[in-house]
Design goal:
Layout (H helix, E strand, L loop, with lengths): L1 E3 H20 L7 H13 L5 E3 L5 H4 L8 H17 L4
Antiparallel strand pairs: 1-2
The structure holds zinc ion.
Zinc ion binds next to helix 2.
Protein name: Competence protein ComFB
Organism: Desulforamulus reducens (strain ATCC BAA-1160 / DSM 100696 / MI-1)
Pfam families: ComFB
């Protein structure tokens, strides 16, 4: 099975980044549509890195450094949140 490692990383970090952003910015919408829009924007701004899964657990096996580190993923999510909050589609 082939998975986009970046997508797994964004999925994994999205809630954490979203919750922290919403705590600092009251009124931030975290509805399912906004979350998906943020994820799509973040993924479009990040590289794609396909990895072959073996017994699961590929997420921890692949070094985050390969994608520019956690900071790059967090920045892409934050950028997506700001775009979606300015122009929500829900
Ligand atoms: Zn919303």
């Amino acid at each position: 099975m082939i998975k986009n490692y970046i997508e797994l990383a964004v999925e994994d970090m999205l809630d954490d980044v979203f919750i922290k952003y919403a705590a600092k910015n009251p009124g931030t919408c975290t509805c399912p549509r906004c979350r998906l829009d943020v994820m799509a924007i973040a993924l479009n701004n990040l590289p794609t890195r396909y990895v072959v899964t073996d017994e699961g657990g590929i997420y921890t096996k692949v070094a985050m450094e390969q994608v520019g580190g956690r900071a790059q993923v967090v920045a892409a999510i934050l950028n997506g949140i700001q775009i979606v909050q300015k122009n929500p589609r829900h």
